[in-house]
């Protein structure tokens, strides 16, 4: 059995999803969970892109002990220097250098000749290797690059010191057979006196990211790259949980293992979903809400007789627990702490625990039975870093004689300054959003509004996801809110989204340098 390494790029490529803006604290929490999940390397960000990205990579580098931390860099010396500075405290630092090699990218984006690209690879991989023991190189848009030139580019990078070679399917263009043959071709023709590990990086534009990634493994890849839940720009990246479970279920075919702790899969997926503001579709493979549901009578009959008839993945394999928590309004702090520990929340500070337990008691008063999902949602809702400045505090609602709703929204800042705004609407949510709009007085358009019940039943907690657009800049922001009351959850989500827009308008959230920009130098 070969061992397949997993590199997660949820914090870098995943954050390129329109509307996704992880705070530094959220990135740290995700990074810790990824380490617990068994990820071998985390692409923590693109340090040269913005001060926030640099700081996030720097902070993640300080806390991870088992998982390698890597930063992305264009073939630009200042990018490589930024990675070095951000990662100098990492236990296992790596760098990922890339430049485009396809004809269309070289001609129109880079405006460089093939010879100039080869020279840039040699110069910048050499420069990176002088600063890092582990250098990864990617020929961007590799699957639309001529085989002979791709081989030349990769050989140049290997000769310059790269030990990981990533072959990205940047626009989701390739097919499993083509990708398999590309890996076989490169592995058979690249020469080196040391081990070179090849990896796929697949986008899902044609819906083949998982199939292509598995084909690359069959073709000899020793590491895979992707994101949790498949988040990423356009149609997203390969979902790492799908690859990990496929390797487990089909060991007979792939003859490969990984270090992924499969029963941490659901918790990892849920955390990334909540912080990204992107819900997992019900029919999503491996971790979707219907992944273990059986509606057909024939299927139900078969599963009751033997689960293996229609269930190749057990819920327990990926950390889905069907039992409910034996916690309620009479449960004490000790029992609550024990349950948190059992769910993997071991590093909550005493101050945060006190606030969390108080919220648990409020929830337990409203619910007959508190489930694992309720507790996870409660923790995530408490630890989501709300934007600084004024935050939602409370609301009150009244009905008018003409059938409209009037909502008073109370906003509070860290200095306990309180401001109330009042607005009406055809419904309570519209009135609440109108009141929040009048507080922030900025050009915001609501693009989507979704409500998800955390658990089943009439007493389920509500999670609200909103997507808004800053009409002054065109930037998309996702935000979410969690509360037992749907209206409060809606107000929290919309307030958080408006706070992000406010921060962008104030220059606190800055435009990021695109890693696809034309390198200068």
UniProtKB/TrEMBL annotation:
As cofactor, the record names: Mn(2+)
One GO term under biological process is: L-leucine biosynthetic process
Name the domain of life. Answer: Bacteria
Q: Which InterPro entries match?
A: 2-IPM_HCS-like, 2-isopropylmalate_synth_dimer, AIPM/Hcit_synth_CS, Aldolase_TIM, LeuA/HCS_post-cat, LeuA_allosteric_dom_sf, LeuA_bact_synth, PYR_CT
Please give the residue ranges the record annotates as the region Regulatory domain: 391-521
Q: Has UniProt tagged this entry with the keyword Nucleotide-binding?
A: no
Q: Which GO terms describe its molecular function?
A: 2-isopropylmalate synthase activity; acetyl-CoA C-acetyltransferase activity; manganese ion binding
Q: Mind listing the UniProt keywords for this protein, alphabetically?
A: Amino-acid biosynthesis, Branched-chain amino acid biosynthesis, Cytoplasm, Leucine biosynthesis, Manganese, Metal-binding, Transferase
Give the matching CDD domains: DRE_TIM_IPMS
Under catalytic activity, the entry for this protein gives:
3-methyl-2-oxobutanoate + acetyl-CoA + H2O = (2S)-2-isopropylmalate + CoA + H(+)
Give residue ranges for domain Pyruvate carboxyltransferase.
Answer: 4-262
**Which SMART domains does the record match to this protein?**
LeuA_dimer (SM00917)
Q: Which residues form the signal peptide?
A: none
EC id = 2.3.3.13
Pathway, per UniProt?
Amino-acid biosynthesis; L-leucine biosynthesis; L-leucine from 3-methyl-2-oxobutanoate: step 1/4
Similarity comment: family membership: Belongs to the alpha-IPM synthase/homocitrate synthase family. LeuA type 1 subfamily.
The protein's role, per its UniProt record: Catalyzes the condensation of the acetyl group of acetyl-CoA with 3-methyl-2-oxobutanoate (2-ketoisovalerate) to form 3-carboxy-3-hydroxy-4-methylpentanoate (2-isopropylmalate).
Q: What is this protein called?
A: 2-isopropylmalate synthase
Species whose genome carries this gene: Pseudolactococcus plantarum
Designated gene of the protein: leuA
